[in-house]
Records
---
Amino acid sequence: MNRRLLLVDEDVAKLELLSFILCPPPSEAKPIHEPFIVVLAGNKEVAVDHVKRSLALKLPFAGAFVDVGGPATGTDTLIRLRNLDPQIQLVAMTTEHAAQNVGWDLLATPFTETQILQKAHQLISRWEIQRRDSEPKRRAK
């Protein structure tokens, strides 16, 4: 199962928080979930480079959480990531509750740990289903 997630935000503290939630450090306590593999990007150019590199290595990201409120990220990042990898599952993190778009999920900030984990599991599941459903098409070519 692909548990690779890209986290994109210019706010380093938010990236660290998301990373801590999705990939908690090892401890003596039993983890509440299997950790995800997370890669951090502080701006859209770094995010695009990470996706290009992951595809070249045949280690695609299942999903990406992208802050769309800052000048260093935004909805253009979502579009660029989708153009590079049509299978990547996207979440736009925004303070604008009324934002409407096509092709990605919305996650209003502030968010809870539970919301982040639920959304991450949804991304992984959708990526796996999409990959499985496209298998016969790839074999037929």
---
Amino acid sequence: MEDKNPQSNAATTTEKQISEWKKKYGKDNVIRLSVEADGQIFACYVVKPDGKDHARQMSIYQKAFSLMQQNKAIEAGQFLLNECWLGGDEVFKGTNAKIQVSACMKMVEMLGF
């Protein structure tokens, strides 16, 4: 799931921001999601819902799991993407359905649902 391809049009995300996120959340908890569409690679960064705030972590997992039990994988992925979003291409937030759905499914896969 984690993509290490340096090619991205995520112009709003700088290396400095990524380094700060990794320092704040832990380098293994900051994930780069990428989706290829129309010959371009779009990327965003999310943080795994792990960390010191156990109540928030449980709330996120419970909501996502509940949606999955209702066979609402895309909705679960959208919820996770919104809750875990750090930055990147805004197309992941709904301006391109293919990219948004792909990212949602990657979020669900990331958590092992």
